[in-house]
Design goal:
The strands form 2 sheets. Strands 1, 2, 3, 4, 5, 11, 12, 13, 14 and 15 form a 10-stranded mixed β-sheet that branches. A 5-stranded mixed β-sheet has the order 8-7-9-6-10. It folds into 3 domains: about 100 residues, 3-Layer(aba) Sandwich (D-Maltodextrin-Binding Protein, domain 2); about 80 residues, D-Maltodextrin-Binding Protein, domain 2 (3-Layer(aba) Sandwich); about 80 residues, ACT domain (Alpha-Beta Plaits, 2-Layer Sandwich). Helix 1 links the parallel strand 1 and strand 2. The longest helix is centred in the first third of the chain and has 15 residues. It is α/β, with parallel strands linked by helices. The protein is built from 8 helices and 15 strands. It is globular and about 60 Å long. Helices cover about 25% and strands about 35% of the residues.
Length: about 280
């Protein structure tokens, strides 16, 4: 059976590195006919899965420095057909790419907003007067380098090698242990795995409304590895809550907790249980 994987492009993005890592893992599971398809945005990659254009999409959901990738959570809530099949954690090492000979010459820096945020302390120290301009991907930022030697981009060293552009500084992210979690999404229900992700809205915005849902998991002895709020987009001050549970949907006490959760939430959406797959070295070579 052929498998097509959608991801944020163009070539050289960290999302492509994650897709290559996932392809390598699939190959180790005896899958051989695997293709990669690029999309101009994370939103379009996710929508492609819902439309059946690709078998699955691999998209970033959380970074260890900058936190949540909001478009992933918001779109997963909106598209009811999608489920999380696997997770993958990719180390992120940013490089400073420019034709300038020293950082003081740089006046403008292009990159994805997540990358700019992950390097903000380095940028403030090395290029304090530079203007920061967001792009849809780190690789897209490279197309501006030929406009002027005062322009720089932040992307991977692999991308710099692919497009044959010079690297001025390496490992510029603000923490050496920078990493991003990716989710593999498709339309198949997933029940087994060490983690379960879900989201819910509350029937009323009042004191203690969120306390009861959280108490349910505490009473069931289920640890929450992440809790994130996102606006409902209906009214100011109304939020959705995204949770990652250290539990599987196959567990009886997880099912009991979810039944209790239904009684104190307005809308409850389950995105599936999944495991985190290992990332082999050299996947982007």
């Amino acid at each position: 059976m052929s498998i097509s994987i959608g991801h944020l492009g163009p070539r050289g993005t960290y999302s492509e590195q994650a897709a290559l890592a996932y392809r390598a893992w699939l190959a180790s599971q005896q899958h051989s006919d695997i293709t990669l398809t690029t999309y101009p945005s994370i939103l379009q990659a996710i929508q492609a899965v819902a439309a059946g254009e690709v078998s699955c999409a691999i998209v970033p959901v959380e970074n260890s420095i900058e936190g949540t990738v909001a478009v992933t959570l918001d779109t997963l809530w909106q598209l009811d057909s999608l489920r999380i099949q696997r997770a993958l954690v990719l180390p992120i090492r940013h490089t400073f790419i420019t034709h300038a000979k020293e950082t003081a010459q740089v006046e403008t820096i292009y990159s994805h907003p997540q990358a700019l945020g992950q390097c903000q302390q380095w940028i403030a120290r090395e290029c304090p007067i530079a203007t920061l301009i967001p792009t849809r991907s780190t690789t897209e930022s490279l197309q501006h380098l030929e406009e002027s030697p005062t322009i720089a981009a932040i992307a991977s060293e692999w991308a710099a090698s692919l497009y044959q552009v010079p690297v001025l500084a390496r490992s510029i992210n603000d923490r050496p242990d920078n990493c991003t979690k990716f989710w593999i999404l498709n339309q198949e229900h997933s029940q087994e795995g060490s983690h379960t992700s879900l989201a819910f809205s509350l029937p009323i915005n009042c004191p203690g409304a969120l306390l009861r849902p959280l108490e349910i998991f505490a009473e069931a002895d289920i640890n929450l590895s992440r809790i994130e709020s996102r606006p409902t987009k209906r009214s100011l001050g109304e939020y959705l809550f995204f949770l990652d549970l250290e539990a599987s949907l196959t567990s009886a006490h997880t099912q009991d907790a979810l039944k209790n959760l239904e009684n104190c939430t307005e809308t409850l959406k389950l995105f599936g249980s999944y495991a985190t797959i290992p990332v082999a070295s050299g996947v982007a070579e």
